[in-house]
Amino acid sequence: MSLQCGIVGLPNVGKSTLFNCLSNAQALAANYPFATIEPNVGVVNVPDERLFTLEKLVKPQRVVPTTVEIVDIAGLVAGASKGEGLGNQFLSNIRNTDAIVHVIRCFDDNNVVHVNGKIDPVSDKEIIDLELQLKDIESVEKKINKLEKQLKAGDKEAKYGVEILQIYLNHLSSGKSARTAPVEPDEQRFIQDINLLTAKPVLYVCNVDEAGAVNGNAYTKALQDAVAAENAEVLIICAALEADIAQLDTYEERLMFLNDVGLQEPSISKLIKSSYKLLDLITYFTAGEKEVRAWTITKGTKAPQAAGVIHSDFERGFIRAEVIAFDDFVHYGSESAARAAGKLNVEGKEYVVKDGDIMHFRFNV
Q1: How many CB atoms lie within 10 A of CB 197?
Q2: pTM higher than 0.70 for the full model?
């Protein structure tokens, strides 16, 4: 599954530093705009404590976590929607992602220049929003023009489409993003083919200094207040601190470092988990002596399609799925004990897989 989160923001807000913490890719983190010209893609393991629990119970030969793809996209500037600062290329890179991680600078540092000369996280957010909204307005207007031609031929669906797209157009023109437009889920079909930038789910990341790593600061509070109506998650991360943590060799050293600064876990782990959730992904497991493995599926996936993530033959020849809930597996300690207790369920083609299900598929091809 190749769903991607794109890291966006103004130049010099810490995007590439975060990206380097997330993956082994060595994106250039330089003190000038456009340090990253081509988008870098990192495939990142998703931290999941359930894997460690299963490893202790099953004692497999190996453990394989699931992953999420993160794309580091070069910094946007005001005027990007009109091509400023290689804007067209950058906006195209965003369009190819499935969700947006918006990094916003929330720290003072005279040694790191700000592209607009001052630290103002709310203004920075609005600059990015405006550029994406302007590009979306252009896309919606083109789609309306297309449907209006069909409307002249008496196409009733086109008439309905124009009405819905006009709602989006008015919403975007008022400075709001498409994801908050007042339309019903089934009406969103009219924008599926134009892949609106502001319709993508968003996660805000406040990049702070070490002093703000635990509780944030005045900048993060202002940003949280500004996005309160969006129902979007806001994470507080000190990218410089995370970079230091990533350089430590052992788990014990990292744990000691975290304790010293008052953190329970690396904030970068929270970012990975939140990015995974933002993409509407869940995890199911297979557990055997050879391997305990996490598998990624979209929420709402049925059993045959979940089986197809392992191999297309599993989906094509699907017969049934044997399912144990994670909590039941842990409570009884093994598959055989869970089966004996009546906690192994046999499910058919209409079963919707739940996060944490431990599954075994029966198939015939």
Answers
A1: 26
A2: yes
